[in-house]
Amino acid sequence: MPNTKTPLLDGVTWPEDLRRLDDEQLALLADELRQETIDAVSLTGGHLGASLGVVELTVAIHSVFDTPRDRLIWDVGHQAYPHKILTGRRDRIRTLRQAGGLSGFTRRAESEYDPFGTAHSSTSISAGLGMAVARDLQGADNDVIAVIGDGAMSAGMAYEAMNNAGSMNKRLIVILNDNDMSIAPPVGAMSAYLSRLISSKSYRSFRHVAKQMAEHFPDPFKKAAHRAEEYARGLLTGGTLFEEMGFYYIGPVDGHNLSHLLPVLRNVRDSRETRPVLVHAVTQKGKGYAPAEASADKYHGVAKFDVVTGVQAKSTAKAPAYTKVFAESLIAEAERDERIVAITGAMPGGTGVDAFAKRFPDRAFDVGIAEQHAVTFAAGLASEGFRPFAAIYSTFLQRGYDQVVHDVAIQQLPVRFAIDRAGYVGADGATHHGSFDVAYLGCLPGFVLMAAADEVELRHMVATAARIDDRPSALRYPRGEGIGLELPAIGAPLEIGKGRILREGTTVAIVSYGGRLQECLAAADQLQARGLSTTVADARFAKPLDEDMLRRLAREHEVLITIEEGSIGGFATQVLHLLAHQGLLDAGLKVRPMVMPDIFVDHDKPERQYEIAGLDAAGIVATALMALGRDAVERPARA
Q1: 577-614 burial, b for 16+ CB within 10 Å, e for fewer?
Q2: Tens-place pLDDT, residues 324-376
Q3: What is the pTM of this model?
Q4: Residues labelled as active-site residues
Q5: Which residues share a beta bridge with 343?
Q6: Using CA atoms, how far apart are residues 140 and 384, in angstroms rounded to an integer?
Q7: How many whole angstroms separate alpha carbon 51 and alpha carbon 49?
Q8: Dihedral (C-alpha) 61, 63, 66, 68: value to the nearest 10 degrees?
Q9: Rounded distance, CA 238 to CA 550, Å?
């Protein structure tokens, strides 16, 4: 039965359906699309604010361009919820970020309308240029449109791509979704008129004739005329930087006004400009939903919420979040040491640096989506005697790896990496899991690597890192809440490279690195009930290892199991290397490394992701029993 609240949207399944509507209908459709987006995300949670900011832009692009033949790339794909609704996925939009449902980002495997997967930012122009070059090599004539915004222009990669695109004279359309500035008078009638003018064929024809005339002048006059024309456009519209990089700049345009957007995009489509074009659209994050517009973060990421009130259905925390514990621990250390500074890359709230910044505004630095710069910036601070903590998600630190190697590790500078979101992270899925940092940092000479098993350990590890002043270090901790332990007022530095034994046994030794410790203890209880005496150890350090502890566990147990929230090549690799070189595998010790499996695990609840990976208590028990040649426990199926 049709939804009477969305009569136009009910008639749109694919973008081709949009192209049968007139401009007035498209404006009404945008209103319906906004309401559908709000309603869907209220049931699933997700990145609402960015998607609300591009509703009109989404309608305009799909109505003007021939997608999917024309390639449309959404940078930071969490702004693509309206796009998904208009591209054959409305019937599944309420499965967003749920197990087996739609991804929260664009994804090639999901739809032909998603030609490039984007979940980390600032990649769209590079990918779009690659597609444009491929098009030209194949003799095709389709358009390539990259929509970049929501902070993605703060990353150097976007400018590297623009520099390359501007020098290649390839037809590429970049739409800058500028949701950092308000829709002020400059983006009014005069701006709309100028944007239509400079995107029109008549203006470009006049411009071409004027340039041809200028060619007959002496060089100084010719250059002066060229500069005057380019800078006049830049001063009128703010596009001087983009013009200098070789783009034909149009804007700014009100990104919520279809009567402004549609003529400009049609002009751009019809112009067949042979160099890259940048359309500057000004939008408002959270547009059209009062609670989002009033919120400080414009409802960037939300839990399920009540549409009428905007109140989010967040569960009551049973224990402080690890991120909060890190922030409070770092503040406590900074109270005692004025050399401590905090750095993050556009994630102050997600990493806890916002709390640090409130206490020490002059010692906190948000460098934008620029992890490469963040790492080397931290290295520069360390070289001058400061004690920088670079608080960066595991998945985002990957983007700064060359700088970690060359600017930090080789120079042995004491940068401290606080790695949030270690392990599986739930609804954001494979692009955001903290899977690889133990492996990619563990191979670097001189690094100290720590992983917190609980919130108390995290507090101690922050104190430990603050005092490591002769080499780089990293501490990792998971997303979510701690286990409810009472926290000391301030952390006590740990002895470097020393683990701890929590339970003594004789047959099976389970060595945990990181947040799986509680599952290890639960597994030990189950093994004990089967008559298998089990030791549980918390390694604390992957580098340097507690060699004495590992030697003793290897000699005194029949089975040694390592378990970690990371990929192959991490903690287990360090342990196996030690045991092999010391001959501790030669006498029949059964070693079973438990790591994340060699697959990308999709979005789901974290506990289900760990179950899929076998990194839960049942998986540990099954591994121990199989190593001993006994029947594995039947794993209960979960809904």
Answers
A1: ebbeeeebeeeebbbbbbbbeeeebebbebebbbbbbb
A2: 999 999 999 999 999 999 999 999 999 999 999 999 999 999 999 999 999 99
A3: 0.89
A4: 285, 371, 399
A5: 365, 390
A6: 54
A7: 5
A8: 70
A9: 62
